[in-house]
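re: ur msg from earlier - yeah i can do the SN-glycerol-3-phosphate complex, just paste it... oh wait u already did. ok heres what im feeding in:
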Amino acid sequence: MKIFLDTADINQIREAAAIGLVDGVTTNPTLVSRVEGKFEDIIREICETVDGPVSAEVVSLDAAGMVEEAKKLAAIHKNVVIKIPMTKDGARAIRELKTLGIRTNCTLVFSANQAYIAAKAGASYVSPFIGRLDDAGAVGMDLIRETMQIYENYGFDTEVIVASVRHPLHVVESLMIGAHIATIPSGVFEKMFKHPLTDKGIDSFLADWEKVKSR
Ligand code: G3P
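and the outut:
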């Protein structure tokens, strides 16, 4: 499973990318609002830091506006993927952008029907929002299971990005289902490395090594 970072914070991205495990980045208007700078500059800097798909979201609600925004964003860097919300206009824009060779990530997906439409429209990626479904009292991960099954049934090549990831168990469940990608906030990425028994083990090995050193 590929790991994308779900942040627009270049420091978080640099730190995680330095380990060599980051395959791409996703942003949205909320994440961009949390950092300084012009949108285009933020996206360019991320593209220069991570060699993989970088999602940048449009804010137009009509298909023509989305396509215009998408063309400008796609011109920033070859790795930019255009995030398009799942609406009727969004589906139209996804279809049109595919004919122009511009990759899209269909976002704000909360149902299997929406995931199906995104793939049929030709989205390169689909982003079901797992944490927000959990918040609403549904089992978000069920949507990942359904989407993976639907795409397998019909041979869609749209890749499933597990989005709105809130904790490391979401990542494990994504792995068990066989999702293509999880986009992970940096706090969750940090937690994936940690286990108290690892820290305890290192402490006791180092303490015992002191005895060996002083021989
Ligand atoms: O990738 C989508 C993600 O940014 C949404 O996450 O935590 O705002 O539901 P969240």
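cool cool. The pocket of SN-glycerol-3-phosphate is lined by residues 6, 26, 28, 127, 129, 131-132, 163-164, 183 (CB under 6 Å). ping me if u need the other ligands too
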